[in-house]
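To whoever is covering the structure queue this week,

Two jobs came back overnight. Logging them here so there's a record in the thread.

Job A:
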Amino acid sequence: MNYDHLIIGAGSAGAVLAARLSEDPQKSILLIEAGPDFTSIDALPDEIKYGWFPDSSGNLGVKTDSYNWGFTGKATYESPIIEVPRGKIIGGSSSTNAQGFIRAIPEDFAEWVSFGNDTWTYKNALKYYKKLETDLDIKDEFHGSTGPILARRFKKSEWTNISQDFYNSCISLGFNDSIDINNPKSTGVGALPFNNPDRIRWSTSIGYLNDIRDRKNLTVISNSHAKKILFKDFVAIGVECDVSGTDYIFEAKNIILSAGAICSPQLLMLSGIGPSDHLENFGIPTLYDSPAVGRNLRDHPRVPLIWDSINEINLQENQSPMQVVLRYTAKGSPFRNDIYIIVGAVSTDQTVRMGVGLYKAISSGSINLNSNDPYSQPIINYNYFSDDSDLQRTREAVRLACQIVSSDEFINVNGYPVGMDSNILLDDQALNLWMRTNVDTFHHISGTCKMGLSGKSDSVVDQFGRVYGVNNLRVVDASIMPDCVRANTNATVIMMAEKISDDIKNGN
């Protein structure tokens, strides 16, 4: 069968595209996913179904090998190898992530427009943010009430003592009380929006696919590892896949690559689209020399801080380990809300943890092939802190985190974080080395197939996801972001898929 649309990857973008494009009964859709499929909420394994457990270690994401690509990467030259979990399951990372449901801010989209992507205004983005969402708490002009993804916040009565201390301390230090983190003007401290009603991780598999699986024009094939995109001349015509150990070729009039910011550039390069000199190193014939494929890796570096708790931490079933977040602008920074600090309460080892995130980094990294074997993971180099201002702003944020826990309002910890003392915290060079050694990721990798204007050497796709140099092939996922947004990326990727679904329907 020759499908109208073949979508590679059933994650935060791919599931949305399949649902929206199959609304036209005259269009046939094939959705393939490398991981397993669970066709109802009740069928989900508990670790996928539920966003946290009362004895949670503080990490709300799933790392189990069965549903995780198991990637590793290098954060800096000084750091050890870090884990890079990505969802390998229907729903992709939306089925395994920590469920923070924060939107990008207007300045992010103004920057996208400045790169020549004039349909990506904040006004357009807001339309699709509202379309995808049912906000269970806030009803106003900025929020949706009929969308497939359910969003909520923990009420103060549900907060842990650690969350309360963090909030009170931030307020005492002069930060704004942010009632709605997703308001476009929001800044300060407040409850983090989550897509997890009743602890259920409300993935795109649940929100977009579960109710439409009986559509006759939609075919979903799980355990299908895409090995190569097939072309006739410069026209994408199909995909070679390994389905549960047997090779198949699926043909389609249009191919949409939604494999994520790691696998999408990898699959493009394996298919002959990428830097020709790099492809030549692995004996891959160049179909189209696209130097930016795999470049411009953008992400949010995270510096983890840990304190032993003075008072007992005993999480209840309704208490997530993480509930409250601080967003603010670093001193002298031109980027609003470039710092993100989240607090967690961990009952398993009675610790208080903070993730200090730089949510507008200047440094960028890369994805490179490790082999021409489609089962070999690519080389992931984040290249964090290669820019001095990234170091300076993160140093300030780490010191602020220590100030927050040292205030009179924060009664559950005292002293310096584990592995740190005043000689490190107060010395710029010592703190730089400590951060470069301990940094890891907030798991918001993006930008590796950047969208921008035709003819620009740093652009891989146009603003509708169409891949330059070939026909009938698009990329729609976090990889096409020109830069990582100042937010957790899941809500924005879903929004992008909603918008590009309409673009495709409208002939763009």
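Job B:
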Amino acid sequence: MATQRDYYEILGVSKNANPEELKKAYRTKARKHHPDVDKSPGAETKFKEINEAYQVLSDSQKKAAYDQFGHAAFAPGGGFGGAQPGGGFRTYTWSSSPGDFNFDFGGFADPFDIFEMVFGERSPFGRQARLSRYVINLDFMEAVHGVEKQIEIEGKRQKIKIPAGVDDGSEIRFSNFILVCQVSPNPKFKRRGYDIISENEISFAQAALGTVAEIETIDGPVKIRIPSGTQSGTQIRLRGKGVRRVSGHGQGDHYVIIRIHVPSRISREQKRLLEEFEKS
């Protein structure tokens, strides 16, 4: 293991950081401390630490083990291949130009990906770098559920299948080109990874007494019971009602945020009843 420092501290994120926040923090740190950019002493060590931290925290199983046992999870006998969190991964040694130092990426990051992060463009090496890129526009539901599209690439019309679960910025590689997904927002739903977030408004009386509400999900309406005494801002989790994973294995959750509607104008009778309620 390259470091005993706290992985969350290395990336500058909280333990509740979601995958997008982890990835953003990793890219920012890796770009800043890449040895071709950061010439200060210890840059190489920092860069290794950043890669190591991200490879653990971006893997759900490794992250769970680290959260429970810390670095001991990756010690010999810890269950993850010994002292190296990425036990079993390949190790790349890359030189930026003749005469420069060789840098060991510790088995965590492909140098082509690092090239893109540091220099803002695809590596000039490797097959994927030579593939043409095209943007495809998708609405929110097309991205969530998958869709078949008729497109024209280099004068040729063809049908392509977009898998369920892609997100804004997702890249899909075909035999001779790459499609970059551009997904339009949805007025009802927000997306957080594979989870869906929506809001549902209820009255003060419904919040106090409890009610059954019909909630719109990406797969259609479902009825949920809202318990009595529910406070505004309460989140109700609908397990498995989120976005299907691109891999086809599993599905995210849907979180409903309850908002309590307070009317701006009420009748005399309503005011009288509320005053009686307040006195009681």
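Note for Job B: The longest strand covers residues 195-203.

Please reply-all if you pick these up so we don't duplicate work.
Q.
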